[in-house]
Amino acid sequence: MCHHNKKQSGFTLVEVIISMAIISAITAAFITVFGGAFTNIFAMGSRSEAKSLAAQRMENLYAAPQPLNGTAIITMLEREGGFRVTGTENLYLPRAGKDFNFSVLNFQPRAGITGNKVMIVYFYHGGERYITLTSYLRGG
Fold first, then answer.
1. 11-29 burial, b if ≥16 CB within 10 A, otherwise e?
2. What string of pLDDT tens digits covers the 140 residues of the chain?
3. Which of 27, 30, 32, 84 has its C-alpha lying 20 to 30 A from 65's C-alpha?
4. Do the Cβ atoms of 70 and 140 come closer than 8 Å?
5. DSSP state of 133
6. pLDDT of residue 47
7. Which of 136, 75, 74, 72 is nearest to 107 (CA)?
8. CA 134, CA 120: separation in Å to the nearest integer?
9. What is the DSSP string of 90-126?
10. Contacts of 83 (CB under 8 A, 6+ apart)
């Protein structure tokens, strides 16, 4: 005959399996949450870098001897590695080997004041995402 000692301590196999299932579910949830958080952190870092680089390009235009005409703006941005887009239709299409696209349009906000509307579109995350910086520069 088989005797069971009532003083035996420990867990049954069912208790162990249920505990492992609960721990596995919690672990999977944490991995999912933290994985998404890391992805967002890296994406925001890339976005911040793109914003900084676009702002640097615009600041270079502000720092240049004024007034700048459209041709001078185009020359400066092309030297810095940009791709000129006429108009705005294709401004948001990434170009191979180029970090940013730009558009320079003549703009007259009111009578007697002329200048150029400059739009810089900087790509990041392999060209899948972009930021846009738009400014007005007085002059020819």
1. eeeeeeeeeeeeeeeeeee
2. 555 566 677 889 999 999 999 999 999 998 888 888 877 788 788 999 999 999 999 999 999 887 788 999 999 999 999 999 987 789 999 999 999 999 999 888 788 888 999 999 999 988 899 999 999 998 76
3. 84
4. yes
5. E
6. 92
7. 136
8. 6
9. TTTS--TT-SEEEEEEEEEEETTEEEEEEEEEEEETT
10. 95, 98, 100, 101, 102
Cα 44 from chain centre: 6
Tokens of 117: 């509307």
Contact 40, 100 (CB under 8 A): no
DSSP tag of 11: -
Tokens of 43: 């994406």
If you count DSSP H runs as helices and E runs as strands, how many of each does the chain have, helices first? 2, 4
Q: Where are the domains of the chain?
A: 13-138
